Amino acid sequence: MCLRVTNDVVISDKMESEHKGEMTNCIYSSLKCRGCRCALGKVIHSAPSRLALIRSIFLLYKANINCYILNSSSLVKASTLTFDQKPLRQSMNEVRQQFEAQLEQMSRIKNRLVDRSVTSNMVN
């Protein structure tokens, strides 16, 4: 799962829906490699509430992806690698906390600007 992908990943304009399996009642677009046109995964646009956390998340097929390993300059199948993974709910909670902290900071800045504006208008 990724929050974003590079320009080498093409997001299909065609919306598809799933009627069985884990993604029942989901609407998604397919992801393909710009170079080889290989199917890379899906991005969910609409999903039932039980899958709400994966809306707008890029779901990738590890079996179809190659990874370039920087320290060894080698190319390997993603399916042969293990990634440190946090549970999705934990990751989403962390992102939510970051957004809430940024919103609070922006609110404090806005209040300071409003206070300055009011003070400035009172002086004039």
TrEMBL record:
Alphabetically, the GO molecular function entries are: metal ion binding
Keywords for this protein? Cell cycle, Cell division, Centromere, Chromosome, Coiled coil, Metal-binding, Mitosis, Nucleus, Zinc
Q: Which domain of life is it from?
A: Eukaryota
GO annotation terms (biological process):
cell division; CENP-A containing chromatin assembly; chromosome segregation
Q: Where in the cell is it found?
A: Chromosome, Centromere; Nucleus
Q: Which InterPro entries match?
A: Mis18, Yippee/Mis18/Cereblon
- Where's the Mis18 domain? 1-70
Family matches, as Pfam families: Yippee-Mis18
Coiled-coil regions, chain positions: 89-116
Q: Where is it found, in Gene Ontology cellular component terms? A: chromatin; chromosome, centromeric region; nucleus
Residue intervals passing through the bilayer: none
User: Which purpose does this protein serve, as stated in its record?
Assistant: Required for recruitment of CENPA to centromeres and normal chromosome segregation during mitosis.
Q: Name the family the entry cites.
A: Belongs to the yippee family.
Q: Which PANTHER family match?
A: NEUROGENIC PROTEIN MASTERMIND, PROTEIN MIS18-BETA
**Official protein name in the record:** Protein yippee-like
The scientific name of the source species is Maylandia zebra (zebra mbuna)
